[in-house]
């Protein structure tokens, strides 16, 4: 099975999977729990493209449960459940500035998952964005979006 960028965004809501490959006893199979910034939810569920999570939800028979935070609380909320043995969080967004060796000790590498189900057009994502999500030779996140503050 190959993921398109659109299905990856719709299915995983982007970037950072916390234990999605192995269900925990706290997870419910009928729901994907996502913590993110409101912008991520809006980009995936509203606008001209419609709800990009809808096809995944219908196919998997699971709803997407969004919990949104501002940037600082979002990162705090990410690392709290990541430090536990089990969590109900399936997908979370990680700021590139928080992709550190310490963060990697709390998260599951994505390399095996990506080998089994490659991200389509992975090479089309700018190499600097991809390498920023690699720690110790392993990929811990899929770059989701980028905002340039200035362009010279």
Short recap of the structure:
It contains seven helices and six strands.
Structural commentary:
- With 152 residues, the chain is an alpha/beta fold.
- Strands 1-4-2-3 form a four-stranded mixed sheet. Strands 5-6 form a two-stranded antiparallel sheet.
- 34% of the residues lie in helices and 13% in strands.
- The chain starts with a helix and ends in a 13-residue tail after the last strand.
- The chain is globular and about 35 Å long.
- It has one domain (5-139): Periplasmic binding protein-like II (D-Maltodextrin-Binding Protein, domain 2), CATH 3.40.190.
- The chain has helices at residues 5-12, 38-45, 54-60, 71-82, 101-104, 111-116, 127-132; strands at residues 16-17, 31-36, 63-68, 91-92, 134-135, 138-139.
- A hairpin with a 2-residue loop joins strand 5 (134-135) and strand 6 (138-139).
- Residues 1-28 have low confidence and may be disordered.
């Amino acid at each position: 099975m190959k993921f398109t960028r659109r299905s990856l965004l719709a299915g995983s809501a982007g970037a950072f999977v916390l234990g999605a490959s192995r269900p925990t006893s706290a997870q419910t199979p009928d729901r994907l729990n996502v913590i993110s910034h409101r912008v991520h939810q809006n980009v995936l569920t509203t606008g001209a493209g419609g709800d990009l999570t809808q096809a995944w939800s219908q196919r998997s028979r699971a709803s997407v449960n969004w919990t949104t935070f501002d940037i600082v609380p979002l990162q705090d909320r990410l690392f709290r459940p990541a430090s536990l043995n089990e969590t109900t969080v399936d997908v979370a967004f990680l700021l590139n500035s928080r992709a550190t060796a310490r963060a990697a000790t709390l998260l599951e590498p994505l390399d095996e998952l990506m080998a089994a189900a490659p991200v389509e057009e992975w090479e089309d994502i700018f190499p600097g964005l991809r390498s920023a999500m690699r720690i110790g030779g392993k990929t811990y996140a899929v770059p989701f979006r980028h905002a340039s503050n200035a362009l010279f």
